[in-house]
């Protein structure tokens, strides 16, 4: 059931995706014109067949009109043939060419000779045109027989450099030989514009294609415009998360290019302003609360001093009560400080700017500062730090992470113990690890040590030995997790070999 729900959720998200809608729109824009083209192309083929049928009949009519004169062919009938051609060819820009293949030339495809044409041209023009028609193979089908009309739709360039469309070849068989009546039309005529060219080259199809491509481009640009604005919003949101909230940061409204998204951009800007104000309010509240709590704590601490001095040795229970009051005040003061630190950490997560930081150098500098305190505790730091490992972070946040990890390792390490600190590259991440040789943490509690107010030190420190300012409330590793996750990283703890605890932090590369 869960798998079906997940699949349904993925399908719904895909349908709502702008990218999916763009793909669907492109499929529609490609499929629809293909289907329409197939339908219109079939209609155009039918129209062409009808025209060619009409031209075939027209060629037959011309052949029949010339047949009486061609049957009794002599010089007198030749003049009559020329007059008939001139009269028949003066229609719709039609050109007529009359060729003869004498009986003795039968079997030779190039054995046709020009006899007459309309409009009239020179002999050189006719000879050149005849050779071109022979090369086109126009007379191949008349090689063995001189029977049957041939409707054509062939474009060619005549010797004058103009395009013509050959529309029909009508053979007429006589005693003199095989006559071929060839009709053609100029391409600037309506008939020539229809025949002899692919359907996709017709002006109507090209115009429709141009309009359709323009419409598709407008729709795609509309989607891309929205997509681009959303990507700009995402980049700005990432910059705000990485670089922190700043009054000088560019606004969503300034980056928006789609008027319909103006309301969304304005609400984002208001949200950023609200977060900025919230961070400032958290800081002020932390200061005010700390001051408000510390004032009565200090008053109580001062007031208990006269009571403490007035007690004699014969009042052990009263002295014990005063001691407990002092310890409770000390713990309460530390709790107020810890609460203030947590609130400031929360505000810092919202506003701290992130910049590329050389984590290798940063760790070296921090460890140098810990050298003397570690020597006092008789602890040794072993470094395994690769050079020039850069992360995108804030120095203060990194300092909080590393100092809390080192303090935690130092608190649990035995005298003479070794703390291993390593920085290395792990694929696209930079790994920082701190390992100690302490008692470690049970496997079932590893995930709990990063929770707030969870500490394992209570077993090592008695209430009597705890001093003000040196108490632990389980916020160190909690701050580590908060800062690391705010920087886009992750943190986990694992058992160290042969014993102890190893905390591993992974940051994105800067």
Task: Please render the helix and strand layout as text.
Layout: H1 2-16, H2 18-71, H3 75-89, E1 94-102, E2 113-118, H4 123-135, E3 150-157, E4 163-174, E5 177-186, H5 190-194, H6 203-243, H7 252-255, H8 262-310, H9 316-351, E6 355-358, H10 359-369, H11 371-376, E7 380-385, E8 390-393, H12 395-412, E9 418-426, E10 429-435, H13 476-486, E11 490-495, E12 501-508
What features would you highlight for this structure?
Beta-Lactamase; 3 domains; alpha+beta; rod-shaped; 510 residues; five-stranded mixed β-sheet; five-stranded antiparallel β-sheet; Heat Shock Protein 90
Describe this structure in words.
This protein is α+β, with helices and mostly antiparallel strands. It is 55% helix and 17% strand. It folds into three domains: 52-201, Beta-Lactamase (2-Layer Sandwich); 211-353; 355-508, Heat Shock Protein 90, CATH 3.30.565.10. A hairpin with a 5-residue loop joins strand 11 (490-495) and strand 12 (501-508). Helix 8 packs antiparallel against helix 9. The longest helix is centred in the first third of the chain and has 54 residues, at 18-71. It is rod-shaped. Mean pLDDT is 76; it is low at 458-471.
